[in-house]
Write a structure and sequence with these properties.
308 residues, 4 domains, five-stranded antiparallel β-sheet
């Protein structure tokens, strides 16, 4: 076990910054925080819970594998992280949904449960990163307010990043909605640093089932034909089995729009790393000046908000 343990701790230390591992049954992502002589500390993304994986328990798991293969689907929640981390070694891997000791198939540092850093980012991290990329692009573009003046490549990037920020921010907004509703009482407002929210009630109506509606009409002497209309689904069936032309029953308008068909997440992540590296390089007077400027902006925002 000595050689296996050394390999495990080394591969854990060499994991790409931001990379995660995911348990195959419970589908929980976790990160390796640090290693010690007798344990590997992991932290789960969904709960921020830190948990030690003990060396002696790895030994028990390896002894079990020496006695035979273990089906991935049979892994218990408490055992899953051990199995996942073990597949980073150069002797263990997954073959036909079985965790097995197979040095010929295993590759040190690789695992079917390894999630690259670009994919392992949380929803809020993706929104942050996309917004940072968009802000960087806007700083670089002199004609962002005049899209007609932009070359095709930056114009495409502007559309894609704006779309990603909008979609990600909307998902993040919806995830914040329920907790806010729990804290908002009737006619109550909550004030944040950048704005205010209040509880709003809107009525959305939808017809009851046909039988109930028609019975209600009959009871009030209302002719049924007043509410009966054309069923578009049935009309489409008629169009498909007869010689009736579509334009005879439909007003067709063509809506031309731009559709985002792909996003290069690897390129985005690579660009982010470049931005992060440049920020790290801002040391000394230049870095201190940037930090002071950010503090001044923050102070001005606070003053403006408190003055309202």
């Amino acid at each position: 076990m000595e050689g296996i343990w050394e390999t495990l701790t080394r591969q854990c230390a060499n994991l790409e910054a931001g990379a995660a591992l995911e348990t195959p049954v419970s589908e929980r992502r976790f990160r390796v925080v640090r290693s010690a002589d007798d344990r590997i500390i992991i932290r789960f993304d969904d709960s921020e819970e830190e948990r030690p994986l003990w060396r002696e328990q790895f030994e028990v798991f390896v002894d079990g594998l020496d006695a035979g293969q273990i089906a991935v689907d049979d892994l218990q929640p408490g055992v899953e992280p051990y199995a996942v981390v073990l597949t980073l070694a150069d002797e263990f891997t997954v073959v036909n949904d079985l965790i097995a000791r197979d040095p010929d198939a295993a590759v040190a540092g690789e695992s079917p449960f390894l999630v690259p850093a670009a994919e392992a980012r949380t929803r809020s991290e993706r929104v942050h990163d996309d917004a940072l990329l968009l802000a960087t692009l806007l700083e670089r573009l002199e004609d962002a307010d005049e899209p007609d003046e932009l070359e095709t490549d930056p114009l495409t990037d502007l559309y894609v990043l704006s779309s990603d920020v909008q979609r990600g921010a909307d998902r993040l907004r919806k995830s914040a909605r329920e907790p806010l509703l729990e804290r908002l009482g009737p006619e109550q407002e909550l004030h944040g640093r950048y704005g205010t929210v209040r509880r709003t009630v809107r009525e959305r109506r939808r017809p009851k089932d046909d039988e109930t509606v028609l019975d209600a009409l009959d009871s009030h002497g209302i002719p049924r034909e007043w509410v009966l209309g054309v069923d578009a689904e049935k009309l489409d069936v008629v169009l498909s089995v007869t010689d009736l032309e579509e334009d005879a029953v439909y007003d067709v308008e063509e809506d031309v729009y731009v559709q985002k068909t792909g996003v290069d997440e690897d390129e985005k992540y690579s660009r982010l790393q470049g931005i992060a590296d440049r920020i790290d390089e801002l040391e000394g007077a230049e870095g201190e000046a940037l930090e002071n400027e950010l503090d001044r902006i923050e102070d001005r925002l606070e003053e403006a908000l408190s003055a309202d």
